[in-house]
């Protein structure tokens, strides 16, 4: 696209100007002889159209093959340690060669049509010149045209034909570019599904003047919530979830792999929207706004909602830069004292202090110079700096030992008493001291109660507890 723009900027004025002015001068010299290149123009246009119709789908296929090649390269760069540890270098090299060959073959088929344009344009130009010399020469011999006029006519028609060739080359470049432009527009024209509402639903005033530009507290309610990634009711990931969490509570969520624990909490900051049902966040004056105790997350301004919901995901992402700059993603105006307090709460201050440059230590891309547990603790500290109403830890202490995990949970209770804390974990030890524990099974809430009550009444929780207890005994024995 860039190359096409540069070519068009250089030629879009000069070529049409030379074409029009040369044509006018040629007609002024000899109208009958000018008919020769008027025949050439529709012929050349027809040939270019045929080439375009055949070449465009092939270039689109070529760019798709480039995608495959780029994916192969990207996967191998990211997962280089996995490739080495499983001794799959030869397999990945062969996969790369197959992808590269597919690109080459697609490019060959597409370029095979494009390379025809120059010979066609040159044949048209030379045929025009020969025709002009033939007919013009006869006119000169008969005395109906002067020799100087013939030479001038040849000069003008050469300018016209050269302009046509330039326009033809620009057209060919646009054919190649069209496939790229179509792919770019697919991204730029993509509609965002999740948007802030325009008016406030409780009364007819703009959102910024309504009650939903502030998250008052961290109360949460899932009311008859169902969700499907495919937006189909026959493939529900969450099915009729009803769960109520009071502001300031620490709630654990536990369940087997694939029980949709992460999906449930991602509905809170509207990373996804429910298929049916309502997710309510924040209590308001029910009498004033005639609502049933909370605000639907779809009625909040998205920035307002997400600024008060902090998530620490399973995959910890850090950016190139210093530790301090990474932490300030949570609060760009955070002071050094606030950074230290957040890192103490996440049990990260000690290992940061032991680094040669402390909080000014430079991190590589993705935090490659830190361990998994260190990255998790930094991500927790970053979330704490947001001072959120709701804090979600999605299996974000899986890489730390149980003692560190316990210190982090204790610090969260003392430093964030008014923040609702949701802890998703695989280990019961990470959630057993929570105010309540929600047990998920197959996308539904099997039970929600304290650790002691669940041990007495919930079969799913009992099974998880016994399996982990047995595993712990096996590990110790």
Short description:
By secondary structure, the protein is an alpha/beta fold. The protein has helices spanning 2-29, 31-78, 80-85, 89-114, 117-142, 147-188, 261-266, 286-289, 302-307, 323-327, 336-345, 349-353, 372-384, 402-415, 451-457, 459-476, and strands spanning 220-227, 238-245, 250-255, 276-281, 295-296, 309-312, 321-322, 362-363, 390-394, 420-424, 436-441, 444-449.
Task: Describe the protein in words.
The structure is a single chain. The protein has 477 residues and is of the alpha/beta class. The protein has 16 helices and twelve strands. The strands form three sheets. Strands 6-9-10-3-11-12 form a six-stranded mixed sheet. Mean pLDDT is 82; it is low at 203-211 and 285-291.
Strand/helix succession: HHHHHHEEEHEHEHEEHHHEHEHEEEHH
Helix content: 55-70%
Strand order of the largest sheet: 6-9-10-3-11-12
Strand content: 5-15%
Per DSSP, the total helix count is 16
Note the main attributes of this structure:
477 residues, alpha/beta, 16 helices, 4-stranded antiparallel beta sheet, 13% strand, single chain
Topology:
Layout: H1 2-29, H2 31-78, H3 80-85, H4 89-114, H5 117-142, H6 147-188, E1 220-227, E2 238-245, E3 250-255, H7 261-266, E4 276-281, H8 286-289, E5 295-296, H9 302-307, E6 309-312, E7 321-322, H10 323-327, H11 336-345, H12 349-353, E8 362-363, H13 372-384, E9 390-394, H14 402-415, E10 420-424, E11 436-441, E12 444-449, H15 451-457, H16 459-476
Parallel strand pairs: 3-10, 3-11, 6-9, 9-10
Antiparallel strand pairs: 1-2, 1-4, 4-5, 7-8, 11-12
């Amino acid at each position: 696209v860039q190359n096409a723009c540069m070519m068009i900027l250089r030629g879009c004025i000069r070529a049409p100007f030379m074409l029009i002015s040369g044509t006018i001068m040629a007609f002024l010299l000899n109208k009958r002889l000018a008919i020769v290149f008027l025949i050439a123009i529709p012929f050349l246009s027809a040939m270019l159209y045929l080439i375009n119709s055949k070449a465009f789908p092939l270039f689109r296929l070529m760019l798709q093959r480039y995608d495959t090649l780029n994916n192969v390269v990207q996967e191998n760069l990211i997962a280089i340690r996995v490739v080495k540890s499983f001794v799959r270098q030869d397999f990945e090299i062969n996969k790369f060669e197959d992808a590269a060959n597919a690109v080459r073959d697609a490019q060959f088929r597409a370029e095979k049509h494009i390379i025809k344009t120059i010979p066609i344009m040159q044949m048209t130009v030379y045929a025009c010149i020969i025709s002009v010399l033939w007919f013009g020469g006869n006119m000169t011999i008969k005395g109906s045209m002067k020799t100087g006029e013939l030479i001038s006519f040849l000069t003008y028609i050469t300018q016209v034909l050269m302009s046509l060739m330039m326009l033809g080359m620009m057209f060919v470049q646009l054919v190649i570019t069209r496939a790229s432009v179509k792919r770019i527009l697919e991204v730029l024209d993509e509609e965002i599904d999740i948007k802030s509402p325009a008016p406030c639903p409780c009364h007819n005033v703009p959102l910024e003047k309504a009650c939903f530009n502030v998250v008052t507290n961290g109360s949460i309610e899932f009311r008859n919530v169902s969700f499907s990634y495919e937006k189909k009711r026959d493939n529900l990931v969450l099915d009729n979830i009803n769960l109520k969490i009071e502001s300031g509570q620490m709630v654990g969520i536990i369940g087997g792999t694939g029980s949709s624990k992460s999906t449930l909490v991602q509905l809170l900051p509207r990373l996804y929207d429910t298929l049916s049902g309502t997710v309510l966040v924040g209590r308001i004056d029910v009498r004033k706004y005639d609502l049933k105790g909370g605000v639907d997350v779809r009625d909040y301004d998205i920035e307002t909602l997400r600024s008060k919901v902090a998530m620490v995901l399973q995959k910890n992402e850090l950016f190139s830069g210093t530790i301090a700059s990474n932490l300030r993603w949570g609060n760009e105006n955070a002071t050094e004292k606030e950074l230290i307090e957040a890192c103490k709460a996440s049990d990260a201050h000690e290992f940061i202090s032991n680094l040669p440059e402390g909080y000014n230590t430079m991190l590589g891309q993705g935090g490659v110079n830190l361990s998994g547990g260190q990255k998790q603790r930094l991500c927790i500290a970053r979330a704490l700096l947001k001072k959120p109403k709701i804090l979600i830890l999605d299996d974000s202490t899986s890489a730390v030992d149980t003692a560190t995990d316990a210190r982090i949970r204790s610090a969260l209770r003392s430093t964030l008493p008014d923040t609702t804390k949701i802890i998703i974990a695989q280990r019961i030890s990470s959630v057993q001291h929570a105010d309540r524990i929600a047990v998920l099974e197959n996308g539904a809430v099997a039970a929600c109660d304290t650790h002691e009550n669940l041990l007495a009444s919930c079969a799913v929780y009992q099974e998880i507890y016994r399996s982990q207890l047995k595993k712990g005994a096996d590990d110790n024995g």
